Amino acid sequence: MRQKSPAQRNGDRGGNRRSPGRPRSEQARVAILRSALKLLGDNGFSDLTIESVAAHANVGKATVYRWWPNKAALIADAFASSTTRKLRFPDAGSVYTDMSQQMRQLIKIFRSRRGRIVSAILAAGQRDRDVIAAFRERFLKPRRQEAYETLRRGIARGELRSDVDMDLLLDSLYGPIYMRFLIRHDELTPEFVDRLCQLVLSGAREA
Amino acid sequence: MRQKSPAQRNGDRGGNRRSPGRPRSEQARVAILRSALKLLGDNGFSDLTIESVAAHANVGKATVYRWWPNKAALIADAFASSTTRKLRFPDAGSVYTDMSQQMRQLIKIFRSRRGRIVSAILAAGQRDRDVIAAFRERFLKPRRQEAYETLRRGIARGELRSDVDMDLLLDSLYGPIYMRFLIRHDELTPEFVDRLCQLVLSGAREA
Amino acid sequence: MRQKSPAQRNGDRGGNRRSPGRPRSEQARVAILRSALKLLGDNGFSDLTIESVAAHANVGKATVYRWWPNKAALIADAFASSTTRKLRFPDAGSVYTDMSQQMRQLIKIFRSRRGRIVSAILAAGQRDRDVIAAFRERFLKPRRQEAYETLRRGIARGELRSDVDMDLLLDSLYGPIYMRFLIRHDELTPEFVDRLCQLVLSGAREA
Amino acid sequence: MRQKSPAQRNGDRGGNRRSPGRPRSEQARVAILRSALKLLGDNGFSDLTIESVAAHANVGKATVYRWWPNKAALIADAFASSTTRKLRFPDAGSVYTDMSQQMRQLIKIFRSRRGRIVSAILAAGQRDRDVIAAFRERFLKPRRQEAYETLRRGIARGELRSDVDMDLLLDSLYGPIYMRFLIRHDELTPEFVDRLCQLVLSGAREA
DNA sequence: CAATAATCGAGACGGTACGTCACGTCTTCTT
DNA sequence: AAGAAGACGTGACGTACCGTCTCGATTATTG
């Protein structure tokens, strides 16, 4: 978790006793996260100042600092709280269709305005390990759990070798997408996704 | 070129006549680039301020600004000027050995102190297209040219399909490395490289 | 009074009927005033924040604000509640001995830790007329009443002119002390007090 | 001196060699001091924020902090740089007329808008010894030097005892003025000044 | 004895000014 | 002309208090 939890702050005496004092304003919390995302999408990382977030959210600067130790933590939390629902894996009968379908949705997001947010997160993550960790835990892992299921179905159907290294396979599928997304040396098209799936999955087929 | 050339600055009167006045100090130029690289490697992007570079290089701030329009340009130039050796592709008789050999050298660099510089470049590149372009032109493309050769030899030897999409293949090989390098969700080991090569190359073999 | 009285707050329904609700905590009141004085004496005016007073007194900030409208009022009240003993005027037979005796006690206080409080009050009073008024009413005037008596005895004894301007005389005696106390251009010694008394009182003698 | 001198900052290599770098902007210096005085006179000490001074002077906040360590030093310097010329001592033939003349000018200043500045200085001086020291050195002492002359003329003329303690005498004359100015328990009128002079000087007359 | 009411401690809230830092520009003298 | 030095206006940083507010808990009077 990026935010300092009330439990952390109060020592967490075990019982469910509410800590004394005015409770945290949920309204402020949401407004801050929304503003952070909006400004990140609008103007990129460099225009995202804590001051602008606070102003945009009609919130005191101190309220931001009370709950997030730095800009990176705020961004990570904002991103995590907005994790997209559109990245579900279908179950259409073959590993190829299931994976390529989801990967097409992913590049759609990467190429949209949300993509700016993702690249800002990954950039910030190179300086701050907490940010990249938040990205992994909140974004990457949940989807990977679903991907495992898709692959397992493929193994059961005999489409993939039963001893396939699932993490290696998934990195081989998604790595090229992330690479093109970040280095921008080539296009991220649906056709690229299809041929990528063919290439990698054919290498993981039953002998 | 990232640096403003003297010709640009002086209007380039055509002849090879040196412009009048004190010539640019090569010593200062080198000191600045070195300092930029050092600070990048030491403390990452956030500690690389123009002020610190100038101080570390015993140079006036204005001298930095005279030759590089912004921090991104400086970083890109500094990185470009530090062309990495050791990333040659061998010619050992098979695509698999040639590629895995080179990829092992790459992850060695990524895991060293130089890796900090690379990740800082890629992070800075998300905000500044000139930086990422410099990375592509100075680092990625030269190596890819050599990689094409390696792959062509493999095609000639019948190890790879003759109609293989070389860019797709290379992204499939390097993408997973970049992904693990930047997201750090799994290790970058020689074994990983080997299995990655096996998986991807087996998908590109002659039918 | 500096404090908002309960009567004010409750509309004062006439009878001596106690208003309902939890009565004001005398313990909190005292703790707040004590803390204010302590912090004033320790570190002067600038370290006296309402926040620090509340923390030091183990009291909610709102409890301070409930009873004192601002910092100046609190300081004034705290000072007033600390009625200084030891400043009695003796009756030893001559104006000179009576006055110099008391003035020696005064400079003793000015040179002690209590002096910091007095100078903080006088400093605060330059910004807030209520503070300086409190100083006058609670500290200056009561003593001046006693001083009048001392002077009247002197007149009766023929030591002073019968038409002497007592306020002028007292200001001439105490003014130099306050001046040296605040501007610190010279020492506040018992000898200074003695010579001051001699000088001023000799000017007020019967012709 | 309140300002950090260039000599201090550069180590003062002895020669009159100008230190390198852009020289300090005299225009900024003057604008800052003027603004400080203006704001002090307008709204008193509490409305004098460094931020408002900088804004009013069209100057960066950092420029203020570069040359003055804190608000008190700034005020002291501003006050010192504006020391009034109107407090000359006349030479009219008697100590009484010379002194009362000058003291009348003093209370005129104390009762004017400049008085706010003086009381703000004295208040600030209670917290910061540098401020009160600046007041002494820049304001009090120069006038006292002139006052000594006036008194010496009086001694020469036989109006004052030849062994009179001049500092004691001057404190007895000015102390009551400062006291009434700061505590405001009584009026500062020309008549008060006259009677004060009569009282004190008569105590210092030749026996 | 319950209901009502005001106070208490705690602590979060929207603000404002703090003093620092780096930005990119400028003005000086020196090379 | 370029260099080092360093001051300039600008603006965000993260902190400290301001004075206000909402909590649950406590302690009185009133019905």
Low-confidence stretches of chain A: 6-15
Report the oligomer. homotetramer
End-to-end gap of chain A: 44 Å
Largest sheet of chain A: none
Which chain pair has the greatest contact? A-B, 45 and 45 residues
Q: In CATH terms, what is the fold-level topology of the largest domain in chain A?
A: Tetracycline Repressor, domain 2
* Fourth-level CATH superfamily of the largest domain in chain A: Tetracycline Repressor, domain 2
Architecture of the largest domain in chain A in CATH? Orthogonal Bundle
Task: Report what the structure shows.
- Four copies of one chain form a homotetramer.
- Chain A has 207 residues and is mostly helical.
- Chain A folds into two domains: 6-13 and 22-80, Tetracycline Repressor, domain 2, CATH 1.10.357.10; 95-203, Tetracycline Repressor, domain 2, CATH 1.10.357.10.
- Helices cover 67% and strands 0% of the residues of chain A.
- The first copy, chain A, contains ten helices and no strands.
- The first copy, chain A, has helices spanning 6-10, 26-43, 50-56, 61-67, 71-80, 95-111, 113-127, 129-156, 166-183, 190-203.
- The longest helix of chain A has 28 residues, at 129-156.
- Chain A is elongated.
- The model of chain A is unreliable at 6-15 (pLDDT under 50).
- Chains in contact: A-B, C-D.
- The A-B interface holds A 44-46, 119-120, 122-127, 129, 132, 135-136, 140-141, 165, 167-169, 171-172, 174-180, 182-186, 192, 195-196, 198-204 and B 44-46, 119-120, 122-127, 129, 132, 135-136, 140-141, 165, 167-169, 171-172, 174-180, 182-186, 192, 195-196, 198-204.
- Chain C binds a DNA duplex (31 and 31 nucleotides) through α3 and α4.
